[in-house]
Amino acid sequence: MSDSRAQIRKSIRELRNNLSNEQQNLASQSLSMNFIQYLKTKKTAKNQHITIYLSNDGELDTSLLIKELWNLNHVIYLPVIHPFNGATLLFQRYEKNSPMKANRYGIFEPKLNCSQICPLPELDYLLMPLVAFDNQGNRLGMGGGFYDRTLARLHDENWQKPRLIGLAHECQKVDVLPIESWDVPLKTIITPNKNYCW
């Protein structure tokens, strides 16, 4: 693909932000159903440790999925920007009454509580945002590199946990992405229309 990563980010973000409220609401409902069904196919037990994210910038609305997962007795975590290095993520438990604050990007995250942090290998699923994805499961993020750096130590290993899953609108799919050596590809991407597995 001749388009640069910056060009792809710009065009896909525009597509995503142009979705109507009705399209976003329907997408949120379909995403929730698709992921819950995905868990059933994996015969996933209750009390799974699942990291998700709060939607921003036209991303698929995850609020309905979070409520459904709580109702099914799964334990939910949100990414928190690391307070010391500021370049990687921690994953902190998220409950209905969790105190929240806006991070430097204006995205809400739980106020840091070290007793509520889950080590990466103890997470069962890590649901990741993305700007674009391609036919090989490559993921293009917002450009901050937070997830890539956080997952870098797992990059060359055949790790089992957490299972990495991208969430996206169908309009975020492209044929081929220009990739870099640090990019972490995904084996599963779930959209409102389809579950992609590689």
From TrEMBL:
<comment type="similarity">
    <text>Belongs to the 5-formyltetrahydrofolate cyclo-ligase family.</text>
</comment>
<keyword id="KW-0547">Nucleotide-binding</keyword>
<protein>
    <recommendedName>
        <fullName>5-formyltetrahydrofolate cyclo-ligase</fullName>
        <ecNumber>6.3.3.2</ecNumber>
    </recommendedName>
</protein>
<dbReference type="Pfam" id="PF01812">
    <property type="entry name" value="5-FTHF_cyc-lig"/>
</dbReference>
<keyword id="KW-0460">Magnesium</keyword>
<keyword id="KW-0436">Ligase</keyword>
<keyword id="KW-0175">Coiled coil</keyword>
<dbReference type="InterPro" id="IPR024185">
    <property type="entry name" value="FTHF_cligase-like_sf"/>
</dbReference>
<keyword id="KW-0067">ATP-binding</keyword>
<feature type="coiled-coil region">
    <location>
        <begin position="5"/>
        <end position="32"/>
    </location>
</feature>
<dbReference type="InterPro" id="IPR037171">
    <property type="entry name" value="NagB/RpiA_transferase-like"/>
</dbReference>
<dbReference type="InterPro" id="IPR002698">
    <property type="entry name" value="FTHF_cligase"/>
</dbReference>
<keyword id="KW-0479">Metal-binding</keyword>
<dbReference type="GO" id="GO:0030272">
    <property type="term" value="F:5-formyltetrahydrofolate cyclo-ligase activity"/>
</dbReference>
